Every structure is written in C-alpha cells, then in structure tokens.
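#struct-pred

JT: dropping the chains for the assembly here, can someone run the whole complex?
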Amino acid sequence: MAGGVKVGRRRMIDSNGTPGSETNTPVRRLAAVDEKITEAARDVGRSADSVTLIAVSKTFAADDILPVLEAGHRDFGENRVQEALAKWPALKTQFPDTRVHLIGPLQSNKTKDAVGLFDAIHSIHRPKIARAVADEMARQGRTLELFIQVNTGEEEQKAGVMPRDAQRFVAECQQDIGLNIQGLMCIPPTDEEPAVHFAFLAKLASDCGVSGLSMGMSGDFETAIRFGASHVRVGSAIFGERG
Ligand SMILES: *Cc1c(COP(=O)(O)O)cnc(C)c1O
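RK: done, full complex below.
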C-alpha cells in the first residue's frame, strides 16, 4: 500500500516496514492497528476518521511513549491518575496537542489533578464523581470529554453503573449536574462474547441519547468498530505485554 510518514491519525508510517527494519516496535504495531481499524471501519461503511484510537500507555515509561508521539499519534490512555501525573505533563509540554484519556477509576480526592491533566474521562459512574468533575471543570475553566462507564456484565468487582440505571444517570449528569456527556464506555467480562456487550452498549447509548461508544481493546477492537465504537482503547497490541 501507499504509505510513508505523515503526521496525523492514519498511516503515519508504512506498515509494511522497510527492508531490514524492526517490525516489533510500538510505532510499527501502531501502524498495523491503524490499518486494521481502517479495514474494520470500511467493512461496515464507516470512515476510519470516525474512530479514535486511544493508545493505552499505562505501565509504560515516557521513553516507550516518545517514539509513538514522534510518529504523530496524539490520543493516549492511562488508568491511574498518579502514574499519568508522573509522565504526561512533560510529554504534553513537548507535544501540546496530545490528548490523554483517563480510562480507569477516578476517586473524588483525585478530581482536581485529573481535571487538570486529562482531556477525557471514560469512567464516570457515580453522582458524587460527576459533581466533583463538574465543579472542578468550572473552577479550572476546562472542558473534558466525558463518558459514563456501564457495567454491562453486572460484575461485582467491576466499576460502572448498572445498565438499568444508565438512562437515569445520564439524565442526572446532563440535566441536574450540567455535564455534556459524550457517550458510554464498557469493559466486557473476559469470559463472554464481547460482541454481545458491544451491541448492548450501542443500543443503550441510543436509548440514552448519546452517540459516543468507548469500547474495544487489543483483542476485540475490530469487533467493537463493527458495532459502532467511536473510541477504541488499545494497549498491549501497540506497546507489547505489560510486565
Ligand atoms: C488496560 C486497559 C485497556 C487496554 O487493554 P489491552 O488489552 O492491553 O489493549 C483498555 N481499557 C481499559 C479500561 C484498560 O484498563
């Protein structure tokens, strides 16, 4: 395929690699994931630009992330506020248009730091957190993209609102708390068919009147795109296995 270096979301580098080059680097793997996104989107008549690839860099050091930034990628995901605070302020200074997404749970005592650093939060699931985020965005004059996490598998150990409460919670966030909710997020149970959860989340989002769908990880992002994912969160397929 035609490739070459291009700053932007798609086709940043030739995914076929150049002769003798290493194929096993985050930048090469990112290009391969990007190709798969483009194909999965095309299969269902969607444009690749309608999917945001969040490169999940949790547990990886700034040194591992830097080449991916240099290749032009700008959306990254972290699941811990403290870890993100240690890495991202410096990287964001170097690459100011970077967008860092919080994909893990947020405690209310970390809200100030989280709102100051992140550009999106995918894990809103309690009124208390929603209010704290709203207050802090007003105080800091910042607007983040917000997703409601839904516990589609109704798993005890997993965060998220129960599906039956989702519509009411979205309405509460929008009408009572004044938040602009972008969409819904889910993490399907590991032992279940993800497609069922993706289809369910898509239907639920439509019922809630929101369009964003944050779903799909390394093992199932193509499936998620077929079911309408607007944001896929891909870690190990880009950065390698986490230690
Ligand atoms: C770690 C993580 C991911 C990425 O998982 P991979 O399987 O490595 O792609 C996606 N979403 C959330 C919420 C995560 O915590």
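JT: nice. The radius of gyration is 18 Å. The pocket of pyridoxal-5'-phosphate is lined by residues 56, 58, 79, 103-104, 187, 217-218, 233-237 (CB under 6 Å).
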